Amino acid sequence: MRTIGLGAVPKVVRSYHSYEHDEDPFFNKESPKYRILEKAMEFVPEYGFQHKAILESSRTFGYSDAIQSLFHNGTFDLIKFHLVRERLRLTEVVSKTEEFKQLSDENTKVKYLVKKRLEGNVPYGKHITQLQTYLVLPPNIGEASEELHKLSDDIRFLSGDSANDFAWYSKRLSLSTTYVALETFMAQDKSPNYTNTFELADKRLSNLGDLGQVYNDVEEFLFYTVNSGLNLIKSQATRG
Amino acid sequence: MLKMLSGSPLRSLNTAYSTNVEDKSTSSTTHFGSKTVLASEKEKLVGQVFSSVASKYDIMNDVMSMGVHRLWKDEFIRRLDAGARPGSRPLDFIDVAGGSGDIAFGLLDHAKAKFNDTKSTMTVVDINPDMLREGEKRCSENHYKNDPRIQFLVQNGEVLDKIEDNSKDVYTVSFGIRNFTNIQAGLNTAYRVLRPGGVIGVLEFSKVDNVIVDTFYQNWSKFLPIFGQAIANDYDSYQYLVESIQRFPKQEEFKGMIQKAGFYVPEPGYQNLTFGIAAIHIGIKL
């Protein structure tokens, strides 16, 4: 893009990221719904991502079971709470952790954040398969993929991504795929403290950074081929 | 009074109690349809309307809403998703202005089907003995016949003097609260009788949010009293129903009233049904 002007051209850097995704209104720490779900997460290691965890939580507050009307999406409310909370935690990590600020390049930062996010799953490790099963159910998959996109978008953005071309998509898409793969691996991982998962994360993410460039190269190549192909046809056609 | 008027369907209700309207300088007044009446009179007038329509209530609802009210009620029951979960004590339901009993039976059916809950109790109250008799009659004809869990009580929803504080878990009122003389008092009473964690669910006509649908809806409303005349031989009562719907507060305003009664209203506050012709409001007593 070119800016026409006589004076100094202001350098406009706009990253394509919404600073504040529209959060679900229930994701307000003051709301009773938040408090019940937060407490319910403590029951998840025991009961899994099940409505039972919400039920037990609301009972500890002394509420009638009728309050379950609040959670008409049942289990998905709980799962979504987990996903959103862990994603938002990353923003805190970035602003509060000195370790993160020391990191130099984008790729290391992505790696760091993905691992942080995976750490968020550790307490619920044995229920990840169940969580993933819920996420791919037809009624949930739309919201689930949106949440996944927000996660990779946040990670990319927080790591300093400034792509504004096709790489924007490819970077997020590739991160999403990698993340899902890692989580699936984690669900089966029996190693202590999920060391295997974190090792795999290191490996998988090392060449992730090149992907954006690869996509751009492919795009450029395709454009060139199509263009010259068209020119070839044109030149043949005009010869009559 | 309405019965007396039925021979001349187009006469306005107004004539029957015009003296009261003139009297408003001395006492508090409220709306009865589009008319202003003494607050003390409204209860009686609404009573007459429902006494008059009780036996034809269901068929008229079907005609007026083109059958959609059944879907709304189903959605309402699904949305509340009430019932005793495994390991819990039975819940206590109260269905206010629930004379016809369809919400009451629906809630119990849902609780049984979804949570295998066959213990929760249901109190159906209505200010109008005629409407309540209608519900009792239906109850004696369906699978809740002689079920000790269901009881019917003639009660004023604004007071509920036979219902103790903190004694109910789920309070429902469907297409009833707009007939209360003092809606806020009704909501406050709901708050009183519910236990902490208890839920109030209100299904009520509301304001249409789509201009085209609204135009259609407003014109449709004009025909309702005529249907009323044709099917139930009662023009004025249906005229009142239409006007009371138009008088009822908008979604946001009503949400505010629920909050004012002390309830926590979860986001987004209400759920519109069919472009807002009706709306579901939920509140939680914390």
From TrEMBL, chain A:
Residues 143-211 form the COQ9 C-terminal domain. It is found in: Mitochondrion. Pathway: Cofactor biosynthesis; ubiquinone biosynthesis. Coiled coil: none annotated. The keyword Translocase does not apply. GO terms for molecular function: lipid binding. One of its GO terms (cellular component) is mitochondrial inner membrane. The keyword Protein biosynthesis does not apply. It holds the Pfam family COQ9. GO terms for biological process: ubiquinone biosynthetic process. Keywords: Lipid-binding, Mitochondrion, Transit peptide, Ubiquinone biosynthesis. InterPro entries: COQ9_C (IPR013718), Ubiq_biosynth_COQ9 (IPR012762). Belongs to the COQ9 family. Membrane-associated protein that warps the membrane surface to access and bind aromatic isoprenes with high specificity, including ubiquinone (CoQ) isoprene intermediates and presents them directly to Coq7, therefore facilitating the Coq7-mediated hydroxylase step. Participates in the biosynthesis of coenzyme Q, also named ubiquinone, an essential lipid-soluble electron transporter for aerobic cellular respiration. PANTHER family: UBIQUINONE BIOSYNTHESIS PROTEIN COQ9, MITOCHONDRIAL. This is Ubiquinone biosynthesis protein. It comes from Cyberlindnera jadinii (strain ATCC 18201 / CBS 1600 / BCRC 20928 / JCM 3617 / NBRC 0987 / NRRL Y-1542).
From TrEMBL, chain B:
It catalyses: a 2-methoxy-6-(all-trans-polyprenyl)benzene-1,4-diol + S-adenosyl-L-methionine = a 5-methoxy-2-methyl-3-(all-trans-polyprenyl)benzene-1,4-diol + S-adenosyl-L-homocysteine + H(+). GO terms for molecular function: 2-methoxy-6-polyprenyl-1,4-benzoquinol methyltransferase activity. It is a peripheral membrane protein. GO terms for biological process: methylation. It is an enzyme of class 2 (transferase). S-adenosyl-L-methionine binds at S100, D126, N156, G157, S174. CDD domains: AdoMet_MTases (cd02440). Its main location: mitochondrion. Keywords: Membrane, Methyltransferase, Mitochondrion, Mitochondrion inner membrane, S-adenosyl-L-methionine, Transferase, Ubiquinone, Ubiquinone biosynthesis. SUPFAM superfamilies: S-adenosyl-L-methionine-dependent methyltransferases. It is found in: Mitochondrion inner membrane. Pathway: Cofactor biosynthesis; ubiquinone biosynthesis. GO terms for cellular component: extrinsic component of mitochondrial inner membrane. Its EC number is 2.1.1.201. Methyltransferase required for the conversion of 2-polyprenyl-6-methoxy-1,4-benzoquinol (DDMQH2) to 2-polyprenyl-3-methyl-6-methoxy-1,4-benzoquinol (DMQH2). Belongs to the class I-like SAM-binding methyltransferase superfamily. MenG/UbiE family. Component of a multi-subunit COQ enzyme complex, composed of at least COQ3, COQ4, COQ5, COQ6, COQ7 and COQ9. PANTHER family: 2-METHOXY-6-POLYPRENYL-1,4-BENZOQUINOL METHYLASE, MITOCHONDRIAL, METHYLTRANSFERASE. This is 2-methoxy-6-polyprenyl-1,4-benzoquinol methylase, mitochondrial. It comes from Cyberlindnera jadinii (strain ATCC 18201 / CBS 1600 / BCRC 20928 / JCM 3617 / NBRC 0987 / NRRL Y-1542) (Torula yeast).
